[in-house]
Amino acid sequence: MEKHAKANAIVLIPARMGSTRLPDKPMADINGLPLIVHVWKRAVEAQVGRVVVATDSPEIAKAIENHGGEAAMTGGHHASGSDRIFEALQTIDPVGEFDTIINMQGDLPTIDPKSIRACLKPLENPDVDIATLVAEIHLVEERSNPNVVKMIGSPIGEGFFRALYFTRATAPYGDGPLYHHIGLYAWRRKALAEFVSLQPSQLEKREKLEQLRALEAGMRIDAIVVDTAPLGVDTAADLERARIALAE
Questions:
Q1: Which residues pair with 157 in a beta bridge?
Q2: Cα separation of 29 and 36, whole Å?
Q3: Residue 2: inside a domain, yes or no?
Q4: Which of 63, 70, 78, 98 is 20 to 30 Å from 156 at the Cα level?
Q5: Nearest to 104 by CA among 13, 222, 221, 229
């Protein structure tokens, strides 16, 4: 891949209290710490740049600040995490110091910090607008699980893909590996600004996958393969698995 100057990156973690399947999810206790604090700690451990939690909840902001972190308050009207982090970015960095924004979901307490760092690698190609992560699916049941989003892409190098589509269906058809898309993105600042200015696209609404808006708008998304997909905490059962995984 063609190299360019090292990105000046910031990690923004959108967090809100509005989960229906797991009420007050960001504040759920995992071995003595709120879930959102564990996520923040993983981002800090990645050592890629400044880390800020973007939230409309004073309770979440206080939890982060009590553990030495930084929070930015946003409005409560946002339809997506991308909109929330973009508002926070305008407050944190109105002059445009940061040219790369890592959008890290606030429900990934077990993510490997190395995976967060890896998300920056596809942006070494200046043609890439957005970078993301995938992991090969090994469990048979995940191949047909609509909650496991699949990336369909063209290989462009060892462990790298150019993403063509994302789907909840079992795809692509035929022999060969399937790849689980991990919802962590590294955005070029210009691409994020363009994205949040667009209306939700038809395929985005049909699949309920926000990243399809970017593809339909002609943006280039490249993916890098990491060893494992982190546990996303959406249910009480997920929360218990996270407690076990993070037990000292």
A1: 160
A2: 9
A3: no
A4: 98
A5: 13
**Domain count for the chain:** 1
Residues 99-137: tens digit of each pLDDT: 999 999 999 999 999 999 999 999 999 999 999 999 999
pLDDT tens by residue, 2-19:
444 456 999 999 998 877
Residue 1 in any domain: the answer is no
One-letter amino acid of 175 = D
Which pLDDT score is estimated for 2? Answer: 43
In whole angstroms, give the CA distance from residue 67 to residue 65.
Answer: 5
> Cα 65 to the chain's mean position, in Å?
22
Tell me the whole-structure pTM to 2 decimals: 0.93
Dist CA 40 CA 61 (whole Å) = 11
The answer to whether residues 152 and 163 touch, using CB atoms and an 8 Å cutoff, is yes
Q: What 3 state SS string does 20-78 have?
A: CCCCCHHHCEECCEEHHHHHHHHHHHHCCCEEEEEECCHHHHHHHHHCCCEEEECCCCC
Helix axes 236-245, 35-46, angle to 10 degrees: 50
- 158: domain CATH number is 3.90.550.10
14-37 burial: b if 16+ Cβ within 10 Å, else e: bbbeebeebeebbbbebeebbbbb
Q: Which domain holds residue 80?
A: 9-245
Q: Is the peptide bond before 172 cis (omega within 30 degrees of 0)?
A: yes
Residue 124 half-sphere exposure toward CB, CA atoms < 13 A: 11
Residue 231 and residue 30: Cα distance in Å, rounded?
A: 13
Question: Does residue 202 lie within any of the structural domains?
Answer: yes
